């Protein structure tokens, strides 16, 4: 290989990725949502996807691939071509919990390129209106008086499940878990009185609280939510300092997606979620706009993975 040819090859390699990024996207983009429709991930994927389609002039297709606590959809994205045309909108909490409970065919850290956390929405502790409690302390007292009588609807191994597990662990109570396929199904069971309580994302569950189908006892954020200012936090209502959980909805791409494309995705998504109408809609629904960097999202995913692994070790929980 002569020097001129070697130089031409090197120049082509150095310029190929930026050129690809400049033309991205040149075809439809798919956002995989690894949970059923109507949950927080689905709501946000469709909201952001519609705006991306307007900006790019390319279709952005939302595809629900539920199953195995989101792991079916996550594997699909982890194995997708690293070109930026398949990405995932997911609850980062669910993704960070899975390595402690499942033998996964992918690595939640190594097989994804973080793009950004779109929003944070605290969990709400919710009951059916017939449950004879109106405060967290009353709920804990009832659970202590009648161990195992209350039942908790949840997708086992999910972020809402681990929130309930953490509450029971810290409060020294026990309730029975009713497995469901997604948190939208948990909502239906509690709203119809077939189950007693659950933790649900504020963004998705607030309308059902306002309609009277569900009763909210508290939120799991550090401070009260602007969209539900009358609801106390778990820390203040249950004397549970530092009790913070919630749904952190984030976008991830497969590993090895060119950095320039990850940056393009991050820039566009952050711009969209900070548009006044989008930010207002999210905040009205109880979600806090985040829009952090890929590096910050990656660090959060790692710390959440470690946090939930510790709780699972302490409680000895195992999937049935």
- Give me the side-by-side strand order of the main sheet: 2-1-3-10-4-11
Shape: globular
Mean pLDDT: 91
CATH topology value of the largest domain: D-Maltodextrin-Binding Protein, domain 2
How many strands?
11
Individual helix count: 12
- CATH class of the largest domain equals Alpha Beta
Can you put this structure into words, describing what you see?
The protein has 320 residues and is an alpha/beta fold. It contains twelve helices and eleven strands. It has helices at 3-23, 40-56, 71-78, 92-101, 136-145, 159-171, 183-191, 202-210, 234-237, 259-273, 276-284, 294-315, and strands at 29-33, 60-64, 86-91, 112-121, 123-127, 151-154, 176-179, 197-201, 215-219, 247-254, 288-289. The protein has a six-stranded mixed sheet with strand order 2-1-3-10-4-11, sandwiched between helices. A three-stranded antiparallel sheet has the order 8-5-9. Strands 6-7 form a two-stranded parallel sheet. Helix 4 (92-101) crosses helix 12 (294-315) and helix 6 packs across helix 12 (294-315).
In short:
The chain is α/β, with parallel strands linked by helices.
Which descriptors would you attach to this protein?
globular; 3-stranded antiparallel sheet; D-Maltodextrin-Binding Protein, domain 2; 320 residues; disordered N terminus; 6-stranded mixed sheet; 2 domains; single chain; alpha/beta; 18% strand; 12 helices
Set down the secondary structure blueprint.
Elements: H1 3-23, E1 29-33, H2 40-56, E2 60-64, H3 71-78, E3 86-91, H4 92-101, E4 112-121, E5 123-127, H5 136-145, E6 151-154, H6 159-171, E7 176-179, H7 183-191, E8 197-201, H8 202-210, E9 215-219, H9 234-237, E10 247-254, H10 259-273, H11 276-284, E11 288-289, H12 294-315
Parallel strand pairs: 1-2, 1-3, 6-7
Antiparallel strand pairs: 3-10, 4-10, 4-11, 5-8, 5-9
């Amino acid at each position: 290989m002569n020097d001129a040819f070697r130089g031409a090859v090197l120049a082509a390699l150095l310029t190929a990725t930026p050129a690809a990024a400049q033309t991205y996207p040149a075809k439809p983009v798919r956002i995989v949502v690894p949970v059923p429709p109507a949950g927080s991930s689905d709501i946000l994927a469709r909201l952001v996807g519609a705006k991306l389609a307007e900006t790019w002039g390319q279709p952005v297709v939302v595809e629900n691939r539920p199953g195995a606590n989101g792991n079916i959809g996550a594997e699909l994205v982890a194995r997708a071509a690293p070109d930026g045309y398949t990405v995932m909108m997911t609850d980062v909490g669910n993704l960070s919990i899975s390595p402690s409970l499942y033998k996964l065919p992918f690595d939640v850290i190594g097989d994804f390129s973080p793009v950004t956390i779109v929003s944070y929405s605290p969990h709400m502790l919710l009951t059916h209106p017939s449950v004879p409690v109106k405060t967290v302390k009353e709920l804990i007292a009832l659970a202590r008086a009648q161990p195992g009588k209350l039942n908790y609807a949840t997708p086992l191994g999910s972020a809402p499940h681990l929130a309930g597990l953490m509450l029971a662990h810290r409060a020294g109570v026990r309730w029975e878990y009713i497995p469901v396929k997604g948190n939208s199904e948990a909502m239906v069971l509690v709203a119809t009185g077939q189950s007693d309580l659950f933790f649900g994302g504020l963004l998705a569950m607030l309308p059902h609280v306002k309609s009277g189908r569900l009763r909210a006892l508290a939120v799991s954020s550090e401070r009260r939510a602007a969209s539900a200012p009358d609801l106390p936090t778990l820390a203040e209502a249950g004397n549970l300092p530092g009790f913070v959980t919630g749904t952190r909805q984030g976008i991830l791409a497969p590993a090895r997606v060119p950095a320039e494309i990850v940056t393009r995705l991050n820039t566009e998504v952050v711009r969209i979620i900070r548009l006044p109408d989008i930010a207002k809609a999210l905040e009205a629904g109880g979600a806090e706009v985040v829009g952090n960097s890929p590096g910050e999202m990656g660090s959060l995913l790692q710390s959440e993975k470690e946090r939930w692994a510790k709780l699972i070790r302490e409680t000895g929980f195992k999937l049935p």
